[in-house]
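Methods: example folding runs. The two proteins below were folded one after another, and each record is reproduced exactly as written to the output file, sequence line first and structure-token line second.
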Amino acid sequence: MSTPHNSATPGDFAKTVLMPGDPLRAQFIAENFLNDCRLVNNVRGIQGYTGTYKGVPVSVMASGMGMPSMGIYSYELFNFYGVENILRVGSVGALSEKLHVRDIVLAQGACTNSAYAAQFGCRGAIAPIADYGLLRTAADIAEERGLRCTVGNLLSSDTFYDDDTANAAWIKMGVLGIEMEAAALYLNAMRAGKKALTICTVSDHVITGEETTAEERQNSFREMMELALEVAVRS
């Protein structure tokens, strides 16, 4: 069995998949953290791997950028490949003064300016939220490890470059930062009856101007990667 975007066969993916946006970050996680890993998908260079972490099968595959891309890949993993848990491991632009570059954020919810949820036909606004069990496990592990970790809402935006001046409004509502995939992931998980969590590292700060390089975002967010892998082992 394959899909238009995935050449893997049944059983190629573990029940838990880590999903960074960047294919090179997926490769980095596979080569630096997984044992006996093998490439199971490379359609469009998206790079999906399966191996083991502390003896537990774990997969990692890129989602690409934005909700349409995350929507496609997470849908196929949940609905065609038997994946039960997807952990997004990505970067976030901070809005909150409480956050600094390289802090970790666990997204309990994902506000959005996208119309992605309209497809489900609900007469009202769906609240895209994380699975509580995964969220609780991640928060507990972060506390055990003494990580700088904050739990709260993120904004999943459809645009990276735009004319929107709404940041002040999101800040007033306590939104911690902006990324581009969590809402679609959470909505797909809710619809499929599966579990999802977004774990992000602050790559830059929209208000203060702090930032990391593209190379740092690709390779150096090890605390986030190890946190997600520990969640995978306990899930």
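Second run, written to the same file directly after the first:
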Amino acid sequence: RMRKNIIFGLIAGLVGFGGLASCTDKDVTTTSRFEVRLTDAPADYAKVLVDIQGVEYNVNGTDGGWKSLPLKRTGVYNLLNFRNGVDTILAGEEIAAGKISQIRLKLGHNNSIVLKNGETISLKVPSGAESGLKLNLHAELEAGLAYVLTVDFDAAKSIVEHGNGKYSLKPV
């Protein structure tokens, strides 16, 4: 089975392809393996905790086109555990080959940062639980290939301090 890697930087907006392996003509299938992974760049916090409750993909660009990918584990992830080439798999399964227009991460309400002094501060995530953090993908998944989408949070740039002691997560 061939594998394509897709790296999506929330701040940089970079999508790259690579990591192709060999495949034979005997591999006849109508599905693609699709995985979503999580990684991060360094940030000046002790922890950046994001409560991930779901991963969905949109197959036709309409509100009714959202489908869930089974999560490996729901709950709070410390983004800073996934730096310097380390990632974790969030979700994945065999899905029908074809177009994917977006993915979204559905977030819970337990999002926070821990400052270097140990203080924990709640993170507001606009629309995180309602509509999710949406990422435009517009990719065509070919049958018989495996795809890995790596969501690269840049916590240092995605966390906004409001000056009143409040913080929010606003990925681009």
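Comment on the second run: Residues 7-26 have pLDDT under 50 and may be disordered.
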